[in-house]
Design goal:
11 strands, 4-stranded mixed beta sheet, 384 residues
Length: 384
């Protein structure tokens, strides 16, 4: 019997890749819900191709057109308002809505799905404590889709939690590995968007270049695997062949190796604990290749240190870190601050905002809104 899947963020890269896995699954999965943010034209094509039971869109201005479309072309599909769509039961929910906007959908997914394939790191950064609590109360399992955390999840199947010595997250180093702070001052937008290994959205690509993406993943790993920050390490691995590693207390290190394609961790998250036969994602072992590992330059790439600092400090600092970074990245992409100004801007925001730790989803959302509003005002003042 096929497992029903809700895809939260179906028109993004993760949602699109998930649908490819479903398409090739030989009916192992069925699409229960397609939920998009605002890309109506792509959502229409997905409805026609995958015939979901339900469909929804976050942008209220496009809801009427979507209703009309499915009434005329897909009468077996039912339109559901966004808030109601988040509460539809399913076997697996793929949480792929970008940014802290994905926190509330992730919370609902935990409540209404047996498993959540999590591709939204900001949910854990901003609300990791709340997500842990929800999982404890519902019994819902989270399988990470981020390639690094997915790799760790696979490696941990070889040992018990008490046997973990450390988690080792690998990072490609982005396009600026080895550069000095002075060289980073003159980085252009096009240079920062030219990632050497992965094809990703602009925000994640810039985060990779600053190492903020890896910093957010450190926080994510802490909440996913309940390992203290002092035992979560980062290594620069330019080849991006080893997606992450686990060191066990006996000295053994297990690594997960695979091609750089997000369909592979998505497939793992959907089929877990099984592994389907698949010839598409074979890693080419023919010929010779090298595996290099380097310590990150945490002085030049300060975003990584800021993430460790905020992870240890608590929820309020994590939300300021994440919100300030989102605004800083957009400001850089618009040419309003320099690449090297991104960590300086984030640290500035951490210094001027001092608030108690939020304890509810509503408080997290409100603090996130406040941080971004204040950050946008700071950008307007042109100090960075």
């Amino acid at each position: 019997m096929s497992k029903s899947i809700n895809i939260l963020g179906s028109t993004g890269s993760i949602g699109t890749s998930t649908l490819k896995i479903i398409q090739n699954s030989e009916s192992a999965f069925s699409v229960n819900l397609l939920l998009a943010g605002g890309n109506l034209e792509k959502l229409k094509k997905q409805v026609q191709e995958f015939n979901p039971r339900f469909v929804s869109i976050h942008d209220p201005a496009k809801a009427t057109e979507l209703r009309h479309f499915i009434r005329e072309t897909a009468p077996e599909t039912e339109f559901v308002p966004f808030e109601e769509a988040l509460k539809l039961d399913c076997d697996i929910a793929v949480s792929a809505i970008v940014g802290t906007a994905g926190l509330l959908p992730t919370i609902h997914a935990i409540r209404h799905a047996k498993r959540v394939a999590l591709a939204n790191k900001e949910s854990l950064v901003a609300g990791g404590d709340l997500i842990r609590q929800e999982c404890a109360e519902t019994g819902t399992e989270i399988i990470p889709v981020d390639s690094e955390h997915n790799a760790i999840h696979q490696c941990l199947r070889a040992g018990e939690p008490k046997e973990i010595e450390s988690l080792i997250l690998t990072a490609s180093g982005g396009p600026f590995f080895g550069l000095t702070h002075e060289q980073l001052e003159s980085v252009t937008i096009n240079e920062a968007l030219n990632h050497p290994t992965w094809s990703m959205g602009s925000k994640v690509t810039i985060d990779s270049a600053t190492l903020m993406n890896k910093g957010l993943e450190v926080i994510e790993a802490h909440f996913l695997f309940r390992v203290p920050y002092s035992r979560i390490h980062v290594k620069i691995h330019p080849q991006s062949v080893v997606h992450s590693m686990v060191e066990f207390r006996d000295g053994s290190i297990l690594a997960q190796i695979g091609i750089a394609d997000m369909q592979l961790p998505i497939q793992y998250a959907l089929y877990y604990p099984g592994r389907p036969e698949n010839q598409i994602f074979r890693f080419p072992l023919e010929g010779s290749f090298s595996l290099d590992f380097h310590d990150p330059d945490r002085v030049t790439f300060r975003c990584l240190d800021l993430a460790y600092r905020c992870g240890e400090a608590g929820a309020a600092e994590r939300i300021v870190l994440n919100g300030a970074n989102e605004v800083a990245v957009q400001a850089f992409l618009k040419g309003r601050i320099s690449f090297a100004g991104i960590p300086a801007f984030i640290e500035h925001m951490l210094n001027i905002i001092d608030v108690p730790h939020p304890t509810t989803v509503a408080e997290v959302v409100e603090l996130d809104r406040r941080v971004k509003k204040q950050a946008e005002l700071e950008v307007e003042r042109g100090h960075f």
